[in-house]
Predict the 3D structure of the following.
Amino acid sequence: MSNIFVTSASGNIGKPLVPLLLNSPSIGNILLPTTNSSRLASQIPTSDRITILEGSIQDPAWVEEKILEHHVDTVFLNVHGNDEFFTTCNLLSSVLRANCVKHLIYLSSCGDVMPESVFHERHRGFIPGLLLVKTAVEQMLMQSKAFQEDGRTYTILGPSLFFINDLRSQETMLGDMGLFRDPIGKKGVSRVDTQDIALAVVKVAEEPEKWSGKKIMVGSRDLYKEDDVARLWSEALGKPIKVAPNDSHGLDQLEKSVSAEISPIWGRDIRLVCKSQGGVLPLNDANFLSKDVATIC
């Protein structure tokens, strides 16, 4: 059985992932690093197979020590935030230095992030930081000889736009404005439930050789356009809901709201993602979704 090291266990993917791992006959011990062990313990099931590790994944020496101490052979790498790039690179270093790790599962983003596509076809020579880090890490994994030696393997998961992100518009939809604030756009985007992403992680962890060296897209084959989102939320709430337009005004309002809630850095980057695609995610063509989606989920 595999011993798995899971980052971001208290997040939108981690919460449904931990129970699924516990139910898998292929998974042994589950190691959960966190800087707040009491909070994480209150959010997950109790099991003698779960070990909560108090510490920071931004400390590569600590990560390497714990991986070796607990004989970890599988790592699920899900990192986000302002320090995502440095943290991810350091974690990859720890994974390579700890010879016991044989398989890495990396959470990226949906779509083709090859440099020629990202810099030329999609973003016309400019790419938001939110997506650039995914491009860089995917390239490191694909080009690294270290993951081709000593029996190591990796799998990249590319989820589309989370359904749970809609809750960010809860206040404005329930208020007098009746506004879904994310400018989805008229081209449409794929959507995904975080439970399905968690299921994909478990499937890969159970059969790492089967999914080795692949990028698996996880999301709906149907695309959700702004009219679809407006209709669905109008029906659910019993009141008219309109979607913020994907134009200068809509993007201005999105940047202001995200800047106030998170930070100006994220406000601008999310705006750039939306502007460059005419939608919230870099997925305007259902053909980007791999046939592996139906198999793995």
About this structure: Confidence is low (pLDDT under 50) at residues 279-297. The chain is about 40% helix and 15% strand.
